[in-house]
Structures are given as C-alpha cells and as structure tokens.
Design brief:
two-stranded antiparallel sheet, 3 helices, 7 strands
Length: 156
Amino acid sequence: MRVTNYEVLLNGDRIPHLVKESARNYAGNSCLTNPSQIAEFMRELYHADILPEEKLWMIAMNTKCKPLGVFELAHGSMDSAVMDQKAIFTRLLLSGARGFVLVHNHPSGDSTPSEIDISNTKKVKEGAELLTIELFDHIIVGDDTNYCSLREQGNL
C-alpha cells in the first residue's frame, strides 16, 4: 500500500489546502481495521515506539478503513503534545475522510492513557459526530508491542 503524508498550507488567498509532503510504501494490509495493525503500521513507518518526544498523528480513512493520508498534528515534549481540534477537523474535511484514527506515542514506553488523553479524545469524538465523520479509535503506542486502544478500553 502507498501511504501519503500531507501538510496543510495556505494558498495565495490564505485558504488552507492539502499539499503532498511525502509518500512511502507499506507492505502490510491496505486496510487498517484493528488496533494492533494500526500500532504496527505506526511503529514501522513512523517509529512511534522509539521517538524521544510525543507526537500526535491522524490517519484519515475512507469508509473501508483504507488510509487517505497521514497527518502529523503535533510534535510535543517528552510527556505531552497539544491536540488542536480545529487542525484535526480542517484536515479531515480537506481530505474528504469518512473516518479517522488518532495515534500518539508515549516515549516512556507505558501506553496507559492519561485523563487528558481520555478527555481530549471524547471532545474530538463529539466534534466529529457533528460533522458525521467517525472517530474509529485513538491508539497510544508504547514500547515494543505495547499499545492501548481507547475504543477497546471503553473510553471512546
């Protein structure tokens, strides 16, 4: 599967639009339908399990869970990354996504969600519902094969 990374830039009229940043091949399944697949995808392509700072990504998907694009939403510190809902929804609407997955890493290796992780995820879910775009999951990647799915935990 070919995975495209996008950036949002302003055009001459200061209107946001998508710009292809890069593309890479992924040998795995072309549809990302379960948390372990998504965690492995993020480890393999984005090294989410070995980064020294928190990063937050969004995988915009079609109705069949095929990635339309991957967006890096935040590059934070060793223990936090700021989630900007407006940035999330701008990118979802520009990409024509029907659903999405949020993914972030915990450099400590412990994938246990914080209260802020849970609270922010619920707020994003509420906003997405207004736009009839489904938040499929929020995955936290820890070390090795360690990950947490907020959906599987009942926090979504």
